[in-house]
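agent> fetching stored inputs for the adenosine-5'-triphosphate docking request
agent> found them:
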Amino acid sequence: MALERTLSIVKPDGVQKNLIGEVYRRFEQAGLRVVAARMMQLSQAQAEGFYAVHRERPFFKDLVKYMVSGPVMVQVLEGENAVSKNRELMGATDPKKADKGTIRADLAASIEENVVHGSDSVENAKNEIAYFFAAADLCPRTR
Ligand code: ATP
Ligand code: MG
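agent> prediction call returned; pasting tokens
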């Protein structure tokens, strides 16, 4: 087992539907600890930069429009295998294909409005955390 950190976002639909607490409850129940958090309204440039890997995809424009449509809650989660554990809690991108009991199966409206983002690798997690947080913003739990 490896102690990891991952970047999580409660997306605009999740914030709008008052699901921040419900999503955090699931993180905490699974043993993931919130070590940094910030609510923010993403700018167009921030959203485009964050999802730059998808810029050639047909859904990119709509994805960015959705991500700037309201405030998001951005957090760093820490725990054993945090990256894959968070992806398991989230479920598949398309809520119709997500396993029952996952965040997206239980709470998401569509493949686009799917409540949460989570880093998909340890390497991407490092870059995504640095995209939103300075090292001094993180409060690791050592006890
Ligand atoms: P995320 O990166 O947000 O955690 P993911 O890794 O499950 O989601 P990606 O393939 O990285 O899925 O897609 C990023 C986001 O783009 C999705 O979460 C969703 O909001 C949107 N998206 C992905 N595929 C589609 C699609 N076919 N149509 C519309 N939106 C999509
Ligand atoms: Mg992704």
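agent> quick read of the result: The radius of gyration is 14 Å.
agent> awaiting further instructions
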